[in-house]
Amino acid sequence: MALFTVTDYDKMVYEQELKDFLPKKIIDVHTHIWKTEIMGPKELRPGEVKRQVTWPSLVAKDNSVEDLYETYRLMFPDKEVTPLIFGTSDGGVKSIDACDRYVMESAKKTGAPALCYSLPTYSAEELERRVIEGGFLGIKSYLTLAPVYLPEAEIRIFDFFPPHQLEVMNKLGGIVMLHIPRNGRLKDPVNLAQILEIKQKWPKVRLIIAHIGRAYTENDVGDAFKILAPAADLMFDFTANTCAYAMEKLLESFGPDHTMFGSDLPILRMRMKRIEENNTYINLIPPGMYGDPKQDSHLREVSAAEGEKLTFFMYEEIRSFKIAAKNVGLSAADVEKCFYTTAKTLIDGAKADIYGK
To answer: Does position 163 have pLDDT exceeding 70, yes or no?
Structure first.
């Protein structure tokens, strides 16, 4: 049985809109892999409250490395896709060790580059040991791992990427995949100040601002790119983002040498179309496919007829990037940078700095 269905409409979207736009080789810099049986039940720490949206968990119960590569085969049948893989914090703190071991094993098995999932409680020595022993190229973390006493809206970057860990990444020249916190998203002044501080204090950190700083609507952008301009070597991925405006402003400000494709698989297997409404995003979804839409304010069902014309989140993301690329006049070579070359340069650089090869 197929992992998921690719409809005639999906095939038409790919063949007519995306196939010729995309380069032959693609690097996906933002993918999660995990297996339910190694995660255990989701456990909140004492005093912890839920700090993330619900809808991503509705798409897939897990994402084995085999499922990840099968997804690429189904969605990009004529392309060669290499993922940058890392685990997930969805199972809670106790499951991160098991998940990292699975990522390490999967990286050795497939040759895919990988990041370690870091807890803010790791000492500098512990973090460096985990990175080197696992053959990782850097670290990923998430705001849910910040101390439990912090309200979600008050979490700062340094609460889950503490300075002593950034010092280790600076020493190694490692990648730091940053999913920024806070309700203001990319334009939040605390986020912007701490991003600039990271690049000032730890200039050898290969810092990736994931999801274009969660700028999922035009309102999320603000003057962020102007403020971040002094940090000229910042990297961004446009993972799980369909805001062509944010993509366009990113390309205008930092260019294709700092812009990378990412998927956030498995959630980009979702069938949806994203709209902006009242300065937030709504995922329009087929009726009945993802349970009761009332469980998350970002979900809204459409009619059955409309649902038949909803394709993958993956394709919607690339459709939006295609619009942005056209608006800023990207060449085919520039597009290839965004989907392959820029990420390859980043990954190869981290590998050379950490392991001398």
So the answer is: yes
